[in-house]
C-alpha cells in the first residue's frame, strides 16, 4: 500500500504572520492519519515553520535548491543549507522553474542526484503544455521529462522520489484534468518506472497529481487507483481548503 502524500506548494506567497497561523491550524486540524502532509513554504520561513511542526506529523519541503555543494551562485540555496534547517522534501523541476527560470531536464537531473545524495526527498514535477496536449504529444513529453530527469538514478534511490504529474495548463487556471485523464498519464508514468526499474519499485513509487486541486475535486482525483495524493498550489494557502483536501 502506498501512503498518499499531500503537499502544499505556497510558491512566493504569505508573510510570516499568516504562515504561522496557517501552519498552526494545519497541525492541529489535520485528522487523517494515513496521509503524509508536507508544507512547502518559502525557504526564508522554513526555520520558523519547522519549529511549529516539530512535534507533529507535518513535514517540511523546500520549493527549489541548487545542485552544487557551495560556491559563487548568488541567491541560491544548497542541499546542506536545507538540511541544516531540517527539510524533508524538495520540489524540483516545477513548471514555473522550467518556464520562467529556464530549468532544463539536465539541470533538474543534477538537482535530483544532489538531493538524493544529501537525503532530501525530491518531488519531481513533470507535465505537458496545452499545445503539447492538443497535438497528442502528452505521453512523449512526459516520457522525455521522466527519463531525462531520472537519468542515472538507481532503483533504490527511486524509492525515495515522489513524482508529481502537473499538466501546465491546469496550474493556477482553475482547469483540472479530469480524474480519468490525470490517472491515464499517472499510469503511463508508473509504466515507465516499471519498464526501467521493475514492478517492485513501480508499485511502491508515489505519483501525485497537481493542477487546480481544490476541496471539490480532491476526493475524485485521489480515488483514482494510480494517483497517490496531490501537489496543491492556490488551495494550500487557505487553511480550510487545504485541510479539506488533506482530510479527504
Ligand atoms: P495550483 O498549483 O494548485 O494553484 O494549480 C499547483 C502547483 O503549481 O503545484
Poorly predicted tracts of residues: none
Structure class? alpha/beta
- How many whole angstroms does the radius of gyration measure? 17 Å
Secondary-structure arrangement, i.e. CATH architecture = Alpha-Beta Barrel
Query: What is the number of beta strands?
Result: 8
CATH homologous superfamily assignment? Aldolase class I
- Ligand list: 2-phosphoglycolic acid
| CATH fold-level label | TIM Barrel
Tally of helical segments: 12
**Helicity range:** 40-55%
Instruction: Identify the overall geometry.
Output: globular
Overall pLDDT: 96
Describe this structure in words.
With 248 residues, the chain is an alpha/beta fold. It has a single domain (5-246), classed as Alpha-Beta Barrel (TIM Barrel). It has 12 helices and 8 strands. It has helices at 16-29, 46-53, 79-84, 95-101, 105-117, 130-134, 138-149, 155-158, 179-197, 199-204, 215-222, 239-246, and strands spanning 5-9, 36-40, 58-62, 89-92, 121-126, 162-165, 207-210, 229-232. The protein has an 8-stranded parallel beta barrel, surrounded by 7 helices. α1 runs parallel beside α2. 2-phosphoglycolic acid binds next to β8.
